[in-house]
């Protein structure tokens, strides 16, 4: 398998694995194997989110704390990088280290400097003197100061950068400063303690004003905003929540506990309802000691809260704060908020409400500007035989008879190249085996019998209810051809059922296999052991509840992810575990195979998603950027992108080729639990605990629809095979069908809308609701459209 990278040497952050890693080399922005990662120079406040860093054992809630080591990574199978003198590499590393230490000293971050110097075993004189041992002509000193200027340039605004291990800025200073290949040499490794050193993060909350005046400052701003013109009031009201949080944290940090309590009680009721969960966490932080190591605190401090405001509203705010000489609030705005200013009319309350609600505010407009190849890859040309149903059985087992090209709409449609599709060889994909070609032929035959769905022709729904599932059903998946169904359970088992008359059989033992004639036509049938035939197989191996399950497209493998931190690959020929993939340190909430097989993605409590290949024991890419658990993962139909939904209430789209975050979607008011792409690859549907289903245009990076109706978490979403209907399943015990064609027609995606995010959602989504189907008392965990457009739904009956 070709490597997922260009042939170039990269600077990467890596852990020492057990034994030689056989990984594909990373590109900028992704991890080199387990624990790998290099960062682009965004600083901690960037919305790009392409900072890749692996979790390390015992870290606090997923804050990236890699052990940093600069090394050269050569592509698999490439010629070795010619090494220059090892001294050059060592001196380069030393210069980098000295530059970082100087920068920390100048920024008055003594504790961080101390820790870094202790680990690097450098004497204080070496830092103070800046005389890095170079070639004796001052080159070392110049290099150190050049590096220092680059490091300083990467610092985000007036805020002091975080030390390595607390966010991304420190890591960016180390790995982002190298602009070319580094010769492998003796490396100074910079290790960081397990517990994040939050003192530098918190130092931004140094005493800046009279604690008794905080209520007056906030009340004054509140009065000004409420008395401003209607067009500005909605936009400026976005300031209430981030200012409230930062002012409260400032009071707590400076140990004004009574003032903090009074401030919280007076103003917390003014905040929007969708921030209630965050405020509950905030209310528990009443002492300075509570703030150290608190995830919410660190998230809020290290990622600037993003507000999108028109230029007129911003000028109004600035003028007011300067007139009142309200430096306290102005400092917070400058230091802790990122105001994304746009030219044009201010947005209405409805437009703002549709887009806000995530842990770090809205996405920056820049985050959704990069080009995304959302088109489908060209299908391989497969000649479809004209034979009828009486020969289908024969074709399924043996080789198909003489084929004639079949001129039909399905064949011709896939021959054209989609203008928005990525290049066919953009990422290496596995070649089609003969069995895959046969399966595609069967699929095309099924397609000719597919029911054309629409408002006047709704699909039938077949519901699989898991009865007596006292072991707690936690995950379900169905094969593409709808022949197998798998369930993951809280008792750490995975159970596989056949839903066709064909029973599940294992391969014979080795001794029996040696007796079989390998040249016979029905060899695949002969290797199966009839004595093992049954409708159900139970797979044992996990040591915690199984939260994710995914069948491979060829139905030979099954993936499962668990609370035990592993993803397991099971063979459906022998019904045994082939591999346990260990990379996550915490529960893995979801896993999914690529539509082409070979690759798969996983996401978990450590806040990162990982891309794997079945034949590599370590991840190929690490997608880091979410501020909370990654709850669900999905591959784009062309396999070049991965979507992740998180408890930070955002959805991100990641480029598999380079590990970059290319889209950030905000708008949900609760953790996201379901994702699905439309069959044409152009749209994404997302469902969350807020009961809303949001529709996104991937190419333009815009929200284009909102479907309201569910009263509980939306656990499953699926488009019909032709993309005309969207089915949603929820914990409210219903399946709802929506008119996807009507939802996506006449979209307003002109330049102004794209530039400013002035989205206009239809007032009433009930016009798009085609039907609601209740179960007696069964939450809907999974939905699946068969190749003929019958809906299969699954869930565990929960007695009242």
Automatic annotation (TrEMBL):
Q: Which Pfam families match?
A: TFIID_NTD2, WD40
Residue ranges with Acidic residues bias: 384-395
Q: Tell me where in or outside the cell this protein is found.
A: Nucleus
Residue ranges occupied by any TFIID subunit TAF5 NTD2 domain in the UniProt entry: 209-337
Annotated WD repeats reside at 466-507, 539-574, 581-612, 623-664, 665-698, 707-739
This protein's GO CC annotations:
actin cytoskeleton; transcription factor TFIID complex; transcription factor TFTC complex
Q: List the signal peptide residues.
A: none
Name the PANTHER family on file.
Answer: TRANSCRIPTION INITIATION FACTOR TFIID, TRANSCRIPTION INITIATION FACTOR TFIID SUBUNIT 5
Briefly state the protein's biological role: The TFIID basal transcription factor complex plays a major role in the initiation of RNA polymerase II (Pol II)-dependent transcription. TFIID recognizes and binds promoters with or without a TATA box via its subunit TBP, a TATA-box-binding protein, and promotes assembly of the pre-initiation complex (PIC). The TFIID complex consists of TBP and TBP-associated factors (TAFs), including TAF1, TAF2, TAF3, TAF4, TAF5, TAF6, TAF7, TAF8, TAF9, TAF10, TAF11, TAF12 and TAF13. The TFIID complex structure can be divided into 3 modules TFIID-A, TFIID-B, and TFIID-C.
Name it. Answer: Transcription initiation factor TFIID subunit 5
Source organism per UniProt: Rhinolophus ferrumequinum
Taxonomy of the source species: Eukaryota, Metazoa, Chordata, Craniata, Vertebrata
């Amino acid at each position: 398998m070709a490597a997922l990278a260009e042939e170039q040497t990269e600077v990467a952050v890596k852990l020492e694995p057990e034994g030689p890693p056989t990984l594909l080399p990373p590109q900028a922005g992704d991890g080199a194997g387990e624990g790998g990662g290099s960062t682009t120079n965004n600083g901690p406040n960037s919305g790009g989110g392409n900072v890749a860093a692996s979790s390390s054992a015992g870290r606090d809630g997923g804050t990236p704390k890699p052990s940093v080591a600069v090394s050269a990574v050569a592509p698999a199978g490439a010629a070795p990088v010619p090494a220059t003198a090892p001294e050059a590499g060592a001196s380069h590393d030393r210069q980098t280290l000295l530059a970082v230490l100087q920068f920390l000293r100048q920024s008055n971050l003594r504790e961080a400097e101390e820790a870094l110097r202790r680990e690097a075993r450098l004497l204080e004189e070496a830092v103070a003197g800046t005389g890095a041992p170079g070639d004796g002509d001052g080159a070392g000193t110049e290099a150190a100061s050049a590096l220092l200027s680059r490091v300083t340039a990467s610092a985000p605004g007036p805020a002091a950068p975080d030390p390595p291990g607390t966010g991304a800025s420190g890591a960016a200073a180390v790995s982002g400063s190298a602009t070319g290949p580094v010769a492998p040499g003796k490396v100074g490794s910079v290790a960081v303690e397990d517990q994040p050193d939050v003192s530098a993060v918190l130092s931004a909350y140094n005493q800046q004003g009279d604690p008794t005046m905080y209520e007056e400052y906030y009340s004054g701003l509140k009065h000004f905003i409420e008395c401003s013109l209607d067009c500005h009031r909605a936009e400026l009201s976005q300031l209430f929540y981030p200012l409230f949080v930062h002012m409260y944290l400032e009071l707590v940090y400076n140990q004004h506990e009574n003032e903090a309590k009074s401030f919280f009680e007076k103003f917390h009721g003014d905040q929007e309802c969708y921030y209630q969960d965050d405020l509950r966490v905030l209310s528990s932080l009443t002492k300075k000691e509570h703030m150290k190591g608190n995830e919410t605190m660190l998230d809020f401090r290290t990622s600037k809260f993003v507000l999108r405001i028109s230029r007129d509203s911003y000028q109004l705010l600035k003028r007011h704060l300067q007139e009142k000489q309200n430096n306290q609030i102005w400092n917070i705005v400058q230091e802790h908020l990122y105001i994304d200013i746009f030219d044009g009319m201010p947005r209405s309350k409805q437009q703002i409400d549709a887009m806000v609600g995530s842990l770090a505010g809205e996405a920056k407009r820049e985050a959704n500007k990069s080009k995304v190849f959302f088109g489908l890859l060209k299908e391989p040309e497969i000649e479809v035989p004209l034979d009828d149903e009486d020969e289908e059985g024969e074709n399924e087992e043996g080789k198909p008879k003489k084929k004639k090209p079949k001129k039909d709409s399905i064949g011709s449609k896939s021959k054209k190249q989609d203008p928005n599709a990525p290049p066919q060889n953009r990422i290496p994909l596995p070649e089609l085996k003969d069995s895959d070609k046969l399966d595609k032929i069967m699929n095309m035959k099924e397609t000719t019998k597919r029911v054309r769905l629409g408002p006047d022709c709704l699909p039938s729904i077949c519901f699989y209810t898991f009865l007596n599932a006292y072991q707690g059903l936690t995950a379900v998946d169905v094969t593409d051809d709808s022949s197998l169904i798998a369930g993951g359970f809280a008792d750490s088992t995975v159970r596989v059922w056949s839903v066709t008359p064909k029973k599940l059989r294992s391969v014979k033992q080795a001794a029996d296999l040696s007796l079989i004639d390998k040249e016979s036509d029905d060899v695949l049938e002969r290797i199966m052991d009839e004595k093992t035939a049954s409708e159900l197989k139970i797979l044992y191996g996990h040591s915690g509840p199984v939260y994710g399950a995914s069948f491979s497209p060829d139905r030979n493998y099954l993936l499962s992810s668990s609370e035990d931190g592993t993803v397991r690959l099971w063979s459906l020929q022998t019904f045994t575990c082939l591999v346990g993939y260990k990379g996550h340190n915490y529960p893995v909430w979801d896993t999914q195979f690529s539509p082409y097989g070979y690759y798969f993605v996983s996401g978990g409590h450590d806040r990162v998603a990982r891309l794997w290949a079945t034949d590599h024991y370590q991840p190929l890419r690490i997608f880091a950027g979410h501020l909370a658990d990654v709850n669900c993962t999905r591959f784009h139909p062309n396999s070049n992108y991965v979507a992740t939904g998180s408890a930070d209430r955002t959805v991100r789209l990641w480029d598999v080729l380079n590990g970059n975050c290319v889209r950030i979607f905000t708008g949900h008011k609760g953790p996201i639990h379901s994702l699905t792409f439309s069959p044409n690859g152009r749209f994404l549907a997302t469902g969350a605990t807020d009961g809303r289903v949001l529709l996104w245009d991937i190419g333009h990076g815009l929200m284009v629809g909102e479907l309201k109706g569910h009263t509980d978490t939306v656990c499953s979403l699926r488009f019909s095979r032709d993309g005309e209907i969207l089915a949603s399943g929820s914990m409210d015990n219903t399946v709802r069908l929506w008119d996807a064609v009507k939802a996506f027609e006449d979209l307003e995606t002109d330049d102004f809308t794209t530039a400013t995010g002035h989205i206009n959602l239809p007032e009433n989504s009930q016009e798009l609701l085609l039907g609601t189907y209740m179960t007696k008392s069964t939450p809907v965990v999974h939905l699946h459209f068969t190749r003929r457009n019958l809906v299969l739904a699954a869930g565990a009956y929960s007695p009242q």
